[in-house]
Amino acid sequence: MGNFGIWQLLIVALIVVLLFGTKKLRGIGSDLGGAVKGFKNAMSDDKQDESKKALENSDKAERSAEKTEQKNKEQA
């Protein structure tokens, strides 16, 4: 049951086209493509946000280390 040949797939594709029509299938395809594109953009935006936060946190850590170092020099 799991082995489908090229002819079986073509028959299924033909039945789908006959049931839904090419215009509706084209619309579904473009909607699906837009959804995938939006998902990829959202994922890349999240990665950029995470890298910006990591950079800000490292900058804050460096500044606090510098302040601590300056205080230690002043106390000595």
From TrEMBL:
Its main location: membrane. Residues 43-76 have a biased composition (Basic and acidic residues). The keyword Transmembrane helix applies. The keyword Transmembrane applies. Part of the twin-arginine translocation (Tat) system that transports large folded proteins containing a characteristic twin-arginine motif in their signal peptide across membranes. TatA could form the protein-conducting channel of the Tat system. HAMAP family: TatA_E. This is Sec-independent protein translocase protein TatA. The lineage of its organism: Bacteria, Pseudomonadati, Pseudomonadota, Gammaproteobacteria, Alteromonadales. The gene is tatA.
